[in-house]
């Protein structure tokens, strides 16, 4: 009985917000017991209702702000909180940047065990709205009508949305045009429970500088009724359309894209530019969703590498070559690798498109290629990594350390895994010089960061 929690579900409490979690929830502690409350800001005194009470922590629903933070701003769209696309929209943008800097600092202290790491102020964007160049929008039937929108947080209940506010307005407009065309021709929306229906997602990409638009229809089966008429309508009605693709995803899965993609109209890619280079981007290509801030991010990485023109550089997780080809303009030779064969093929095309001859891209993992390059006598002066959120595999870290490059430039979308991996490099004899966070995702909790390590 001594461990019984002294709080009950549905009871109302008042407390001061002491911190904000990595998910953007305010933390109120009552007798050292933490409640996590969405929409609360550090320093505020709030009244909340206990919605869930566990043994070690609980969740509360914000009822009233008794003492308001000066950093609080009016929310732009309440739906954005429901669906989790704009969890920080109640905070001023300066406060969002300060929060993200603190998240990076906290990760390096708690996870990486760095006591005095140089965490620089976050490089923010000029306008933290309408910045996304890509949207992946689920399609479902609600009250007998095909709808596009987004899932309510922690559920697969679709909330119809017409304006996402953080996507470029032409992307929002294209989604609605496609939605109305699908309604017009009575195309059945996907039913997740029964695994029936046709249209699962509508994916729209738009080149930030080129304005070119790609529409991808993700279908539950290859055959789509009225396909030719629908494609003609999309080509006619969506402004600046350059490509229409069908992606077939027949599995019962949360993974959006399937393996098979078919070009229904136009070219199999759109083109856009980044740091003065032109890139072809396919329906499956990874391409940062905020182009101007990606340029800031990549320029930060290039500046950190401080190439003099005589270095051999490894671009791990090279994707379609956005970082590697930019590095190639400052290096003697760049080698890139990625486990996605389509991405590597696009990287080769992009190298040719830009007339870059000192960059070579290979399909495979680091553990496959680093021994081969070692045998060939290729030693890397600088290694640049840009892994997915899970960070680096131990095998990869070991292979990098064996190479003994002079510098390691680590680009990350997850401060927690970056800090974890930073400790591995530090323990292997590398000095952490600095961490530069860059904000690509205004109104959200996400932040990118560039870390520079030099051989001690």
UniProtKB/TrEMBL annotation:
S-adenosyl-L-methionine binds at residues 288, 317, 338, 386. Pfam families: TRAM, tRNA_U5-meth_tr. Its EC number is 2.1.1.190. InterPro entries: MeTrfase_TrmA_AS (IPR030390), NA-bd_OB-fold (IPR012340), SAM-dependent_MTases_sf (IPR029063), TRAM_dom (IPR002792), U5_MeTrfase_fam (IPR010280). Keywords: Methyltransferase, S-adenosyl-L-methionine, Transferase. The active site is at 413, 413 (nucleophile). GO terms for molecular function: rRNA (uridine-C5-)-methyltransferase activity. SUPFAM superfamilies: Nucleic acid-binding proteins (SSF50249), S-adenosyl-L-methionine-dependent methyltransferases (SSF53335). CDD domains: AdoMet_MTases (cd02440). Residues 6-64 form the TRAM domain. One of its GO terms (biological process) is rRNA base methylation. NCBIfam families: rumA. Belongs to the class I-like SAM-binding methyltransferase superfamily. RNA M5U methyltransferase family. This is 23S rRNA (Uracil(1939)-C(5))-methyltransferase RlmD. It comes from Ruoffia halotolerans.
